[in-house]
Amino acid sequence: MSIIPERLQALRALMDKKGIDMYVVPTADFHQSEYVGEHFKARAFITGFTGSAGTAVITKNEARLWTDGRYFIQAAAQLKDTTVELMKMGEPGVPEISEYIKDTLKKGQTIGFDGRVVSVGEGQEYEAIACENGASVNYKEDLIDEIWTDRPELSTEPVFALGIEYTGESVADKLKRTREQMQKAGATVHALTTIDDICWTLNIRGNDIEFFPLVLSYALITMNSVELYINENKLSEQIKADLAKDGVVLHPYNDVYADICKLAANEVIMVDPSKLNYALYQNIPEAVKKVEKRNPAILMKAIKNEVEIKNIKQAQLKDSVAHLRYMKWIKENVNKMEITELVAEKKLDEFRAEMGNFIRPSFAPISSYGEHAAIVHYESSPETDVQLKEGSLFLSDTGAGFFEGSTDITRTFAIGEVPQIMKDHFTLVVISNLSLASAKFLEGSTGMVLDILSRKPFWDRGLNFNHGTGHGVGYLLNIHEGPAGFRWKYRPGESEALHEGMIITDEPGIYIEGSHGIRLENEILCRKGELNEYGQFMYFEPITLVPFDLDAINPDMMTAEQKELLNDYHKKVYDAICPLLKDDDEKEFLKKYTRAI
Questions:
Q1: Residue 492: its pLDDT value, please?
Q2: Do 4-147 and 160-301 come out as alike in CATH topology?
Q3: Tell me, what's the pLDDT at 377?
Q4: The pLDDT value given to residue 135
Q5: Contact by Cβ (8 Å): 24, 142
Q6: Looking at the domain covering 4-147, what would its CATH class be?
Q7: Is 292 helix (H, G, I), strand (E, B) or coil?
Q8: How are beta strands 204-205 and 160-161 bridged, if at all?
Q9: Maximum Cα–Cα distance for the chain, whole Å?
Q10: What Rg do the C-alpha atoms of the chain give, in angstroms?
Q11: How far is CA 84 from CA 43, 57, 58, 543, in A?
Q12: Between 560-577 and 420-437, two packed helices, what is the crossing angle to 10 degrees?
């Protein structure tokens, strides 16, 4: 029996008491983070859906949950018996959240939300709808907090610093570049509330969100100082001293809301409406001029410097060796011992830890066998864990956080002999992956221009995959990092031109509900190529170096050019990984699975 209806009843009683007719609960913390700490999982608490993306809208007699294609199967299962209706984003006949609010919010009613977990842009959109409908807004109520009696406390995990040997750039230089952008915008203060941007700027990391080494904090950057709002107990004396040298002044975490009210009227504040929360924005004095501009750190941190690239390649080599051992272990032991999804997941991290400088997984691992792999963001649990057996496919989408950088890799392995349809689908995904990775394009192109290279093999066959083809990867930050990515539809924050030094994933897939799922993901580094009379050409360098499982390939589906691309990739894998192996059996295994077809 689901506990969700009882929670919804308590929420509605509180809404009635506060005069709120509609309440919005997004998946967010106070910093617009994609993934959030346990304290901030309010949407999961009130709906029962635990995926990383989704927004709930609750009225007096309805509860609806919007999520994207990655989570349709998972959400449908978790919302059963909750009375929460699943709204499949992007599907025909499904209204957008704003459309639903506009059609449902009546004159004289009130829409409510916690303004700290809603972005400026979203808050202003709700405000505009309310105004148009003759309704009002209440953004000062955290209703979930009032009914969540055992809510987890905010994290108090310690902060650690990343040295220049990992970052390749000092805090002083990063602040100098940031202030140059502030000057160009005519700003005297920059409100920075996205924790990955703050961590990148100050060369610090933490553990406030599971898997993501980030620190809950706010920063107000001026031309002379950085006012950092953080739980000071997380900082060692050495880190405090180092930050002080760069003009960082410490304040209690929540004091930012009062302090921003005290800005002088002659200040000009630079804000990113998509990254600043609505409540903080509302606290900026009316007399203070606002300049709306994308956080400069977003593009700066996406373009990796040569030190970061060198380190990240080292991290990839470590992860590639670990994955080769993982692949060998699975294929050779599946009939000798009981290997379940969770056993396999744990084993991979053991192989990673053996490589040195391993911190933690870089995101929640997906370890999925058979029909579970058709659930795009499936997470195995003791309740769902199954044994790997011959006759189907095993999908592993995982990442590692090394001091040298973060990795994100997906491989799908054939467990024994698999049906022909699975081989055909696997080969299709290989063709798609290699097609995008081999792109040559002019500087200034976006991921939207190139996404067709990965989609065409699917679309030619009347098929598709319901997620983006690729995303940027942070350096011990968010594993999904803007502002560039591969998508066929426009998406704000992921449509930046591709710059040299960007690292983006290439991860097409196919998902057959009730049967199998396949995804193959490499990280690729954007590089400058030939410069001629037509302009600057660009290309991608694959930095994930793990074989595609030849046991699942159907060579008859591939053209001579596609076979050459696969053989060239496998030669690169062999040449890079073989010298790192000491075991002759491992070398023979690598040779077998990188052989030319």
A1: 84
A2: yes
A3: 85
A4: 97
A5: no
A6: alpha beta
A7: strand
A8: antiparallel
A9: 76
A10: 25
A11: 12, 9, 9, 43
A12: 80
Question: Contact, 66 vs 227, CB < 8 A?
Answer: no
User: What is the reported pLDDT for 493?
Assistant: 83
> 160-301, which class in CATH?
alpha beta
Burial of 523 (0-12, 13-18, 19+ CB in 10 A): buried
Residue partners of 353: CB distance under 8 A and separation at least 6? none
| Architecture of the structural domain at 303-592 | Alpha-Beta Complex (3.90)
CA proximity to 221, closest of 237, 197, 205, 196: 197
Identify the pLDDT of residue 291: 97
248 DSSP 8-state letter? E
pLDDT along the chain (597 residues), means of 10: 93 97 96 92 96 95 94 93 96 96 97 96 95 97 96 95 97 98 98 97 96 96 98 98 98 98 97 94 97 96 98 98 98 97 98 96 96 93 96 98 97 98 98 98 97 98 96 96 96 92 98 97 98 98 98 98 98 98 96 98
Q: Nearest to residue 66, comparing CAs of 33, 123, 27, 30?
A: 27
Task: Report residue 203 as tokens.
Answer: 């060369």
Alpha helix positions (H), 168-236: 171-185, 195-202
Query: Taking CA 547 as the corner, what is the angle to CA 542 and CA 550, rounded to the nearest 5 degrees?
Result: 135
Could you tell me if 178 and 200 are in contact, meaning their C-beta atoms sit under 8 angstroms apart?
no
Domain limits, the chain: 4-147, 160-301, 303-592
